[in-house]
Design goal:
Blueprint (H helix, E strand, L loop, with lengths): L4 E7 L3 E8 L6 E9 L10 H17 L6 E6 L5 E8 L4 H12 L10 E10 L9 E9 H13 L3 E7 H9 L9 E6 L4 E7 L2 E8 L3 H12 L3 H11 L9 H27 L7 E5 L8 H9 L2 E4 L13 H7 L4 H7 L4
Parallel strand pairs: 1-4, 4-8, 9-12, 12-13
Antiparallel strand pairs: 1-2, 2-3, 5-7, 6-7, 9-10, 10-11
Helix pairs in contact: 1-3, 4-10, 5-6, 5-7
C-alpha cells in the first residue's frame, strides 16, 4: 500500500528545506514545512564532523516541524551530478540502449563510468528501425561517493531515504507537472552558488545546464563595491535588488554584470533547445531557488528575453491552510525542490 505521507527533504548549501504532504487527499494537502540554515561548509565537506553538523541540523528541523515519520525523499545537487539529453542515438532496443548509454555517458561524465550510478529515461523512440529513426534519452550520472555521502548523513539523522533524485526533476514536477497543455517552460533555479536550467515540455526534461554563478556572488559583489560586511550586503540585496530606480542605480550597476551572466546562459539554453526541438519553442520562464526573489529580477529578465517570466509557485496545486498563505507566498521559490520531492509517486 502506498504511503499516506510523503516528506521531501532538500539539503541545500545555504538552507535545508522540508515539506510534508498528505497523499490520501486530492489535491495533496500540505501538512507541514520548514527550513533551517545549512551548517558551513555543510554537505560539500568530506569531514565526518561537518557531515554530523548537517545531520544534526536536519534532526532539529524534523523535530521542529513534527515530522510524522522517518522516510524521506531527497534531492542531489545539480552541480554535483552529470545530466544530459542525448539526441543522436539511432533506433535501439532496451538491451542495446543500456549498452549504448554507457558509451555515450563517457563523453560528458568526467570520471570513470564505474564510479557513477547511471539512470536514464527514454523521451522518444521511433516505432521501427529505419534510416531516419532515432532514440532520445535523458541520462543522469550520479557519483557513487556523493550518493554514499548523502546516505551517510541521512543515517546520522536517523532517516530512511525511499528515493533519491535530482533537484531539477523535482522542480519540474512541482512547477510544470505532466500537463500536456502546459507551455514549454524553462526553469531557472537560482541557488546560492549555482544556477541550474531545465527545459520542460509535457512533463519531460528536454535539456539541462548548470553554471557556477549563484546568489552568493551578488552578495559578495555588493560587499566589495560598498565595503560592507556580508550580512549588510545581503540585506541591501534583498531590499533593493536590481531595481534601477533605487539608490541612484548604484546597486543595479554592481549587480547587472553578474545577472547578465545568468541572462546570457538563459539565452544559450533556449537557443540550444529550440535548435533540437523547433516545434517546442520556450513560451515562459519560471524562476525558482533562493535567488528568484531578487527585487527587479522578473521584470529585468522579461524585458531582456521578451518572454513571460514568473516567480515559482510550487503551492499552486496543493490544498493548504489559508492562514499560511502569506508565509507560503513569501517563501515559495525556496521550496520548489522539496515540494517536487514530496509529490513523487511511488
Amino acid at each position: 500500500m502506498a504511503a499516506q505521507i510523503k516528506i521531501g527533504l532538500d539539503i541545500g548549501l545555504a538552507l535545508i528545506k522540508v515539506v510534508v504532504l498528505s497523499t490520501k487527499d486530492t489535491p495533496r494537502r500540505l501538512l507541514s514545512l520548514g527550513q533551517i540554515a545549512s551548517p558551513q561548509p555543510g554537505i560539500i565537506s568530506d569531514s565526518d564532523l561537518d557531515l554530523e553538523s548537517v545531520a544534526n541540523a536536519i534532526k532539529n528541523l524534523m523535530t521542529e516541524i513534527k515530522a510524522p515519520e522517518k522516510q524521506v525523499i531527497v534531492a542531489l545537487p545539480e552541480s554535483k551530478i552529470f545530466t544530459r539529453v542525448i539526441y543522436d542515438l539511432p533506433f535501439l532496443t532496451n538491451e542495446e540502449l543500456a549498452q549504448a548509454i554507457k558509451y555515450a555517458a563517457e563523453e560528458f561524465v568526467p570520471m570513470p563510468i564505474t564510479q557513477v550510478n547511471l539512470n536514464y529515461q527514454v523521451i522518444f523512440r521511433s516505432k521501427e528501425k529505419g534510416p531516419k529513426s532515432r532514440t532520445v534519452v535523458f541520462v543522469v550520472a550520479s557519483p557513487k561517493n556523493m550518493v554514499n555521502k548523502y546516505l551517510k548523513v541521512l543515517s546520522m539523522a536517523d532517516l530512511k531515504p525511499i528515493a533519491i533524485e535530482t533537484e531539477l526533476i523535482a522542480s519540474a514536477r512541482a512547477l510544470v507537472g505532466s500537463n500536456p497543455f502546459s507551455p514549454t517552460t524553462l526553469i531557472v533555479q537560482f541557488g546560492a552558488t549555482t544556477t541550474d536550467f531545465a527545459v520542460v515540455s509535457e512533463g519531460l526534461i528536454l535539456l539541462t545546464r548548470s553554471i557556477s554563478t549563484g546568489a552568493v556572488a551578488l552578495t559578495r559583489a555588493i560587499a566589495q563595491a560598498f565595503n560592507f560586511e556580508l550580512i549588510q550586503a545581503e540585506e541591501y540585496k534583498k531590499v533593493y535588488g536590481i531595481l534601477e530606480d533605487q539608490l541612484e542605480g548604484k546597486l543595479f550597476q554592481v549587480l547587472k554584470p553578474i545577472v547578465d551572466v545568468i541572462l546570457s546562459e538563459t539565452r544559450r539554453v533556449i537557443q540550444a533547445h529550440e535548435t533540437q526541438n523547433p516545434q517546442r519553442a520556450v513560451k515562459r520562464v519560471v524562476l525558482t531557488g533562493g535567488g528568484a526573489k531578487l527585487p527587479g529580477l522578473v521584470v529585468y529578465l522579461a524585458n531582456s528575453l521578451g518572454l513571460e517570466v514568473q516567480e515559482a509557485d510550487p503551492w499552486e496545486g496543493l490544498s493548504k491552510d489559508p492562514a499560511l498563505k502569506n508565509k507560503l507566498v513569501a517563501d515559495a521559490p525556496v521550496y520548489s525542490v522539496a515540494v517536487g520531492l514530496a509529490l513523487r509517486e511511488d
